[in-house]
Design goal:
- By secondary structure, the chain is mainly beta.
- The chain has one domain: Lipid/polyisoprenoid-binding, YceI-like (Lipocalin, Beta Barrel), CATH 2.40.128.
- It contains two helices and eleven strands, in the order H-E-E-E-E-E-E-H-E-E-E-E-E.
- It has an eight-stranded antiparallel beta barrel.
- The longest helix is centred in the N-terminal third of the chain and has 15 residues.
- The chain is elongated, with a radius of gyration of 20 Å.
- It starts with a helix and ends with a strand.
Length: 191
């Protein structure tokens, strides 16, 4: 009887374990949106990043979610603005070459999705933030690799991280908003 139970328990424990995923940078996007001139928005992204996470498919549970981003890779479709953003008024990429997020807790929502709590380090400042996560599914590519897709969204206040630069407008308001909307689409490849 013991010989029969061991394989059953072993395979059950394997199905309860989380799989490791590495970010597929060619199919992921680290984006953001910020108010511009009070009446519109600027969208941007970071082109260089890496990360990993664990996901238990049976429990639909996410853990150990971490991302490292190079702020020098910022792209807002305007070379002059991007150069300003890399400089001392904003990201100061020579002094702060990385943006990091590391999860500390995942709280499942009653209506699907989850809240991802963790530490965001930006411009030399580390703060706890909460982001919304939506599981999009798992699919195999034609070569047998399993890909998992997530959407991660949230809002931060840039001044909380020492990104204070702004200009007042003659007609009232300021050039750029304080609130930054985080717009991330992640595709991970199972390792």
């Amino acid at each position: 009887m013991k010989k029969l139970l061991f394989p059953i328990i072993f395979f059950m424990s394997l199905s309860l374990q989380a799989s490791e995923y590495q970010l597929d940078s060619s199919h992921s996007r680290m984006g953001f949106k910020i108010s511009h001139l009070v009446v519109s928005s600027v969208y941007g992204s970071f082109e260089t990043f890496s990360g990993s996470f664990q996901f238990n498919e049976n429990k639909k549970s996410l853990s150990n979610f971490s991302i490292t981003i190079s702020p020098a890779s910022i792209n807002t479709s305007d070379a002059k603005r991007d150069k300003h953003l890399r400089g001392e008024d904003f990201f100061d990429v020579k002094k702060y070459p990385e943006i990091k997020f590391e999860s500390s807790e995942v709280i499942r929502a009653k209506k699907g999705g989850a809240k991802l709590k963790g530490k965001l380090t930006l411009h030399g400042v580390t703060k706890e933030v909460t982001l919304k996560v939506k599981y999009k599914g798992i699919r195999k590519d034609p070569w047998g690799n399993r890909h998992l897709a997530l959407e991660v969204n949230g809002r931060i206040h840039r001044k909380d991280f020492g990104l204070d630069w702004n200009k007042k407008l003659d007609e009232g308001g300021v050039l750029i908003g304080d609130e930054v909307e985080i717009l991330v689409e992640v595709q991970g490849i199972e390792q």
